Amino acid sequence: MIQSLEMQKYISSRRASICTCSQESSRERLKCQPEDVRDTLGNNNSPIKGGIVALGKFDALHIGHRELAIQASKAGSPFLLSFVGMAEVLGWEPRPPIVANCDRKRVLSSWASQCGNIAPQEFQMEFSSVRSLTPREFVEKLVKEFGISGVVAGENYRFGYRASGDASELVRLCDEYGIDAYIINPVMDKNQDSENVEYKSAKERGQVSSTRVRYALDKGDMSYVSKLLGRQHRLIVKLQNPESQYLRGKQTVSVPKSCLLNLPPREGRYDNCYFLVDEADPLPCGVSIDSDIIRAEFDDEVPPDGDFSTFGIEFGTTQPVRNA
Measuring CA to CA, which residue among 99, 105, 86, 84 is closest to residue 33? Predict the structure, then answer.
């Protein structure tokens, strides 16, 4: 049943701050497969039955999202549930994701050690199928169609038609439908150099968010990005025509920015990066980004011949950005 609002509404009452100690080491081999995308829930498909579902958008998979997954894992089998097709339905301008779709399972797997040795699974619902639902109808759908045991959400979570439902209503409706509801406080960002970030509401100011991650990437502050994500930012490159798009020099590898599957940092020169391809060990490199090209620069050797249709570039955190 529902947790007591007075005593246990916030199963994570601490206002956690970001810190470098929370970062997971991500200098691992490339594990990105193009077909690894989020599964979409259908009317007759309930892989989340009996699970505890964290609700949100989960664009960046940042440390605030990780906290939702951690709390879900404490209550049962953890799942992340978001929506697909929101931009198309709401008329938003398309923009690249922060995490490449094919790289999301790797990130979620890295959370397993903090989620009871269980990697959270991620599912999506078609936004068009729930857009017109009232808050009550949305909760009813989760309970009756998908058979979940409970939900976890942040205190600023909104849901239902025109975002008419808030966390308090989520708690009330879950109680009515006989499932658990856990509302947690946001993970806070102590970095004061983010006053120019545009937030949808005053309540978002100061908390870790995907908007804040995009802001840090736009500044090229990779140390800040890593703190927000709890890991180093990884770009995924997919080449449609490797022979013409993969330009290999004596100590450089260059590709068009149009081949990126997710959001790069601002133009500039970045040190202490890693080049990831196939099952090879990560190669140290520098990275230069301009308006059209991203170029990896190696001190000793370029990657050996192989399949370069998909590869990754992971950004370091210790050196400041310099102009390309």
Answer: 105
